[in-house]
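ok so i was messing around last nite and threw this chain in just to see what happens. nothing serious, just curious
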Amino acid sequence: MGRIKITNVDRAFGKLKVLHDINLDIHDGEFMVLVGPSGCGKSTLLRLIAGLDRPTSGRIEIDGKDVTTVSAAQRGLAMVFQSYALYPHMSVQQNLAFGLENQNMPKKEIVERVQEAARMLDISDYLDRRPGQLSGGQKQRVAIGRAVVRNPTAFLLDEPLSNLDAELRISTRAELAALHRRLATTMIYVTHDQVEAMTLADRIVVLRAGRIEQIGRPLDLYNEPANLFVAGFIGAPRMNLLPARVTGIDSTAVLLESPGGLTVTMRTNTSSLTIGDEVTVGIRPHDIAAIGVDVAGEDHIDAEVTLVEALGPETVVHATIPGGQFLVAVLAGQEVSAGKGPVRFRLNHDGLHLFDASGKRLARAQAS
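result:
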């Protein structure tokens, strides 16, 4: 079992409150990712779960047992740190076995667990080496292996891939996902990298300034962000957010006009809107296409290209629209014609999102 329930948890350091009324139910066997910008409180929350720190108020339960005041050593959890935290004077085998030896586990069982973890993580050939003789990726596998041998109730991982180069992060990320499938053990993973969150998580918790902004499956957060913060944080490149004004309303739709020249009609819940309201239209870069400058119609917007990034399978176009607003479009293929100069974009109407003045996303109205 590995269900972890957090109820009304606050954490303050003196007068500085870093976590505000956190409520979270992490399911047994789930891969839960805590994501958010630096300073949002995600590592603090992980330390509270681990027992390395205690909440100012609230309750933490593991498999139905209140562990709020229980020490880290008695919680049955295993933590993997960003810094690896390996003993440099010990071999890989000794690093893996050290925690088990301190528990006075029989030597035969220690050997079996170490060998199984080494096989699982493909580090059997390195068991006699010391950490100084390993690459960054190999060190990270050893750090994960040290957690695996404990057979914990849950794994807690605090930005474990941040010290690896880009290519190694991708391969190690895939290995970590495969490890989770094999072990079927609860994993709670902290990162500021939303790509890691999207590719690893069963569910994502988006944090900002110590508060939970949204919890959900990766594609749910991508397709239906609850507010402007989540919309701008989840997705790479980030969602374009364009200011607009409500200029017309009927029972299920609103007419929007943007200072940048965008005119669009969107089906949405109109009960909270009035003519003249300031709103925000969101559009993901992949929902934008380049068209001829002489093509007219709704959902079109004129822009001036400032930068083109040719990535091979796709082309990222940076542009500005009237009023100085920035816009990023991701065009399929190698758009060699997308040089600097004027361009007209067509926005995929089905990919548009609408946010009210408070930043809350407005749900689309159902087609009749």
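not much to say yet. The chain has two domains: 4-233, 240-362.
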